[in-house]
Each structure stands twice: as C-alpha cells, then as structure tokens.
Amino acid sequence: MAMKEHSEGGVVVVQLSGGFLGDPEVTDFHNRLRQLKEDGSIKVVADLSRVDLISSAGVGALVGGAKTLREIDGDLKLANLSERTHNVLVVIARLGSVFHIHDTVEEAVAGF
C-alpha cells in the first residue's frame, strides 16, 4: 500500500492505494496518524478511492485512527469508498455509524 498526502484548508488528506491488509501497511498508517496528531493536525480525511482490498486489520486501523483523533476533538473521515471497501466497512462490519463517510474528498473536507 502506498500513502500520499496533501493539505486542503487545514485538513490533511491521506490517499491510500493498493491493499490495506496488515503489516506493514497498518503500522505505517497508524504511525502516520500518530505523527499528525503530535504535529497538531487533527482533521484528517482518508481517501480510499485506490484501495482495492481491505482486511480486518485495515478496518481496525481506520477505527483506531478515528478513536485516536476524536480523543482530542479531531476526526478521521472517509471518502471515495469503492463498492468493495464500502461493503466491507458498512455492510459486513456495520461501521456506517462509526465513520463519517463521504462520496468525495471535497465533501469530507467541507464536513469539518
């Protein structure tokens, strides 16, 4: 999995691509969110448009990231879920009420 990021209006957008399956991807993502938190960047959007596979470990990393940021009045919003990723997060894991899910990065950023 690759991670790219940029800032839009004070919100960090992290674009993930490839498989979000386990180590080292989950560890890299978790460490990056921890670093953003330490740097004071607590508004984050995960752009999942290029994630082709996500495992339970990947789902756990997203849940843990949201929890970490919410503890300090921040948030992790999700954007651009593929049909497969949507099915894993919302239909199978039933996490639709846990995350703020948006169709586009722009909508997610505007949601802050």
Task: Give the key terms.
alpha/beta; 112 residues; Transcription Regulator spoIIAA; globular; 5-stranded mixed sheet; 4 helices; 40% helix; single chain; 5 strands
CA-CA gap between termini: 27 Å
Q: How many distinct folded domains?
A: 1
Residues in β-strands, percent? 25-35%
Query: In this structure, how is the largest beta sheet organized?
Result: 5 strands, mixed
Number of helices: 4
Q: Name the CATH superfamily assignment.
A: STAS domain
The outline comes out as globular
CATH structural class: Alpha Beta
Rg over CA atoms: 12 Å
Number of strands: 5
Mean of all residue-level pLDDT scores: 94
How do the strands of the widest beta sheet line up side by side? 1-2-3-4-5
Per the CATH scheme, the topology name is Transcription Regulator spoIIAA
Structural class: alpha/beta
Descriptive account of the structure:
With 112 residues, the protein is α/β, with parallel strands linked by helices. It has a single domain, classed as Transcription Regulator spoIIAA (2-Layer Sandwich). Helix content is 40%, strand content 32%. The protein has 4 helices and 5 strands, in the order ββαβαβαβα. It has helices at 25-38, 56-70, 83-92, 105-110; strands at residues 2-8, 11-20, 43-54, 75-79, 101-102. Strands 1-2-3-4-5 form a 5-stranded mixed sheet, sandwiched between helices. Helix 3 links the parallel strand 4 (75-79) and strand 5. It is globular. 35% of the residues are buried.
Outline the fold blueprint.
Elements: E1 2-8, E2 11-20, H1 25-38, E3 43-54, H2 56-70, E4 75-79, H3 83-92, E5 101-102, H4 105-110
Parallel strand pairs: 2-3, 3-4, 4-5
Antiparallel strand pairs: 1-2
